[in-house]
Write a structure and sequence with these properties.
This protein is an alpha+beta fold and 553 residues long. It has 18 helices and 16 strands.
Length: 553
């Protein structure tokens, strides 16, 4: 009971029987519970156990049958002595290798901005940003690699070094701010010389309105880093305004500590080998590429040029997703995953469908307040063959996702090495479609002297995959977000059609979950009228000639 109360501390009352599967839509929650339970009780609880036994009583019964003292995975603990050369984490190493292949680019930039209505003290803000950089080492870390040495390592700059902070003030205006933000987002980081953070304060009206731009490289951040980043910035700015320094509680660890632990401790525990064996078997003989029709030939080397189509499916659709998830004892993510599989199948992608999905990778409590790149990527391979009903397909997806979450500690690049697929510079390995569902809770920012606002992401014309479904469960708007697509191989009209098809399929299966997959409609009413009526309006008066004469003519 204490473990449940600790892990489910969401700031609001939680009824486990009713709400756990809603909360379980984020694998981070279940991962934290299994992590804490295993290391407190000496058991081997998996995420599948949590979903199959979602109450304290059910879990107690399940754990009673286990032998105590089972070997859980290694618990994270910051080492007392950090080596002089801390290696990159597995996730960082993957991005570093990607950057080495692709060359300098912006595909992995994370551009954030905050509109500030009210007076901003520039020097206090500059000092506050330096405080945050001092607090989180990863924000002042460059990648070092000696000549002839294949293994890169992290070099943490001193917080007082001039190169440790890139902060500038620039003039802008309402008519030009979007263009200025996109220009700032297009900054190409020199990861071997400069830290992965660049901050610009754009002044729109002197002393009245401004926009704060923070551009980070993905090698130093992820989605779970945004809140601690802005929370710490707010506290530091408040302290600097009064001439003081932020009275932070010391962080229990730094990102470099975790990277060192991951690369050395986890690999020696044996748990990694078990996970890799699972992935090697699960992803054996994976199709090299989905069968979706391309608008243009795939280039020999992906340039990561992308486009975006907004998603605004509304509250009713999201409520329907939640209700079906509750009935089928799964999560909203699983319902959306199954609907995406159905859409891809009906669009001609085949029935062996791998979809990538990010997981937070922060099961240890010590990592919750850290800025850093912890996220891992899972390959969710679903078999849609045999023309199943959507309910049956959802059952397959549920099993696939739970098994994948139970083996989420294996870093993606290690999985890639173990599976060893055919590699190509033209496409992402193992999967080309990615799906993510966020809880939609915006990161609130309220610097003293300014109105409450929210951190936003700058829209940039980049794409890491062929298709990336970035969905959000917004408390007001419902199911929202965007679908990013590779503009090198797909036209905007095709991307818009994909989004319409996804919505049409989703609405169909929510209304008729027992219908066969082959009966799921992918055309909306307008498209169906176009195909069946307008394009088929080919009536012509009969000719008074024989068929051979007409053919000859």
């Amino acid at each position: 009971c204490e473990l449940f109360g600790e892990v489910l501390n969401t700031g609001r009352p939680v009824t486990l029987d009713d709400d756990f599967f809603d909360l379980g839509g984020h694998s981070l929650l279940a991962a934290r519970l299994t992590h804490r339970a295993n290391h407190t009780l000496g058991t081997h609880l998996t995420i599948r156990d949590v979903f199959q036994a979602p109450t304290v009583a059910d879990l107690t019964t399940r754990l009673t049958g286990q032998e105590t003292g089972a070997r859980p995975g290694p618990a994270f603990a910051a080492a007392s002595g950090r080596p002089a050369r801390v290696p990159l984490s597995e996730a960082q190493r993957r991005l570093w290798l990607q950057a080495s292949v692709d060359g300098p680019g912006t595909a992995y930039n994370v551009p954030l901005f905050v509109r500030l209505d009210g007076a901003v003290d520039q020097e206090a803000l500059r000092a506050a940003v330096r405080d945050v950089v001092r607090r989180h080492e990863v924000l002042r870390t460059v990648i070092a690699q000696d000549e002839g040495d294949a293994e890169p390592w992290q070099r943490v700059l001193d917080a007082e070094e001039p190169n440790a902070l890139a902060f500038e003030v620039a003039a802008s205006c309402e008519e030009r701010i979007d263009e200025d933000l996109r220009a700032a987002a297009a900054h190409v980081f020199e990861l071997t010389r400069r830290p992965p953070l660049r901050v610009t304060l754009f002044e729109l009206a002197a002393g009245e309105r401004s926009v704060l731009s923070l551009v980070l490289h993905h090698i130093a951040t992820d989605g779970q880093s945004v809140r601690p980043l802005f929370d710490d910035l707010t506290e530091a700015y408040r302290a600097r305004l009064t001439g003081g320094t932020p009275a932070w509680r010391p962080l229990p660890a730094q990102y470099a500590d975790w990277a060192h632990w991951q690369r050395h401790t986890l690999a020696e525990s044996g748990a990694l080998e078990e996970d890799l064996a699972y992935w090697k078997e699960t992803l054996a003989d994976l199709p090299e590429e989905l069968g979706l029709q391309l608008d243009r030939p795939r280039p020999a080397r992906a340039g990561h040029l992308g486009g975006a189509v907004p998603v605004d499916f509304g509250r009713d659709v999201m409520d329907g997703v939640r209700e079906l998830a509750r009935r089928e004892r799964c999560t909203p993510f699983m319902v959306l995953h199954a609907a995406l599989v159905a859409t891809l199948t009906r669009m001609g992608a085949g029935t062996d469908l791998p979809v990538g999905s990010p997981v937070a990778g922060r099961s240890a409590e010590e990592l919750r307040g850290l800025v850093g790149f912890f996220v891992n990527t899972l390959v969710l391979r679903v078999d849609a063959s045999g023309d199943p009903s959507f309910r049956e397909l959802l059952g397959r997806v549920r099993g696939t996702d739970l098994d994948a979450f139970a083996h989420q500690d294996a870093p993606f690049d290690r999985v890639l090495e173990a599976v060893s697929p055919v590699r190509s510079l033209s496409r992402h390995p193992l999967f080309q479609v990615c799906l993510a569902l966020e809880d939609g809770t915006d990161c609130a920012v309220e610097l003293p002297g300014t109105a409450r606002t929210y951190a936003r992401v700058v829209d940039t014309p980049t794409a890491k995959y062929d298709w990336e479904f970035l969905l959000r469960d917004d408390p007001v708007a419902g199911l929202a977000g965007a679908v990013l697509y590779s503009a090198e191989i797909f036209e905007p009209a095709t991307a818009q059609r994909m989004v319409r098809a996804f919505r049409t399929v989703l609405e169909h299966v929510l209304a008729e979950p027992d219908g066969a997959l082959s009966a799921v409609e992918v055309l909306d009413a307008q498209e169906r009228a176009l195909v069946v009526e307008r394009w088929n309006d080919t009536a012509a008066p009969p000719e008074q000639r024989s068929v051979p004469a007409v053919f000859t003519a």
